[in-house]
Design goal:
Elements lengths: L11 H12 L2 H10 L2 H10 L7 H10 L2 E5 L10 E5 L6 H14 L3 E5 L1 H4 L8 E3 L9 H12 L3 E4 L7 E3 L2 E3 L6 H9 L2 E7 L5 H12 L11 H6 L5 E6 L14 H14 L11
Helix pairs in contact: 4-5, 8-11
């Protein structure tokens, strides 16, 4: 049976699942619905011409009012399969923006590992691989999905920090990059392309993230604002800077994979030079 657009609507009750939903009072569920903008997301789906698939990236950006410009597109060989390594400043907009960019460059041939909330965006589910963080410690099932992604014919974009940038000592700071993308680059013989995306989150988000660290919470409570942060970016223009591909053969034994990851992180930060935007790494 073919689906209609109502099958792609976001349903918080479905995301929470029956066990958790029973434990939460109704006001808490309604609070979550407001915080993740369930009504606005579903309104976008109902109004979109392309309510599922690759076209929805542009539909969502247009609905919110986000624009972007690209620098460095000429660095890419459109016939090659890459691992694109991107900084993680925001938590939501970069996934939609990168999806729009990749649609322009590669059609629907790409995959993006994302957090569980974005993974529940049904219109884009075929492009998103749900992960909690790109770390070396993964569940068996997740390890299989990651291997399938890197061995596929799709372009792959990863956020090696595994978490959004935080404000540390008054400066927006990208978290250390994990080594998985280096290991997979060598294993699957994919060159790495660094990508930098501009943008910062709100003071409230950074405060809640700081509070989570101070209280030593396992979960960053700032994450409850990530969809708010997405919708608050209305009217902003982002800058995507694409670097030159780095051969997988570069990653030899002169450094370990964590050191190589840190070096690619530094290269990515350097791409932001002269982009006219505040520093965010």
């Amino acid at each position: 049976m073919s689906k209609d657009r109502t099958d792609y609507l976001l349903d918080v009750n479905e995301v929470l699942g029956p066990k958790l939903r029973k434990k939460l009072p109704r006001f808490a569920v309604n609070f979550i619905k407001r915080r993740i903008h369930q009504d606005e997301i579903n309104d976008c789906i109902m109004k979109a011409e392309h309510y599922c698939g690759c076209g929805f990236f542009d539909e969502a950006l247009d609905y919110i009012g986000i624009t972007y410009r690209i620098r460095g597109e000429e660095n890419l060989d459109k016939t090659k399969k890459y691992i694109f390594a991107c900084n993680h400043p925001l938590g939501g907009p970069e996934a939609l923006i990168i999806g729009s960019v990749f649609r322009r460059l590669y059609g629907d041939g790409f995959k993006v590992p994302v957090n569980q909330l974005l993974a529940n965006m049904k219109p884009l589910k075929e492009f998103f691989v749900p992960v909690n963080a790109l770390s070396a410690k993964q569940s068996r099932d997740l390890g299989v999905r990651i291997a399938e992604m890197f061995s596929s014919d799709s372009q792959v974009l990863v956020f090696p920090s595994g978490t959004c940038a935080k404000k540390i000592k008054g400066k927006v700071t990208e978290m250390p990059w994990k080594k998985m993308f280096i290991t997979q680059s060598r294993k699957y013989e994919r060159d790495i392309v660094p990508i930098h995306i501009s943008g910062c989150n709100s003071r409230l988000y950074y405060f809640l993230s700081w509070l989570s660290r101070i209280l030593k919470l396992k979960i960053n409570i700032g994450m409850i604002l990530l969809v708010d942060e997405l919708f608050n970016k209305a009217g902003e223009e982002f800058v995507i800077s694409i670097g030159k591909p780095i051969s997988y053969e570069t990653f030899d034994k002169s450094k370990n994979d964590i050191q190589w990851a840190a070096e690619i992180k530094d290269m990515t930060e350097a791409l932001s030079k002269d982009n006219g935007c505040p520093a965010n790494m």
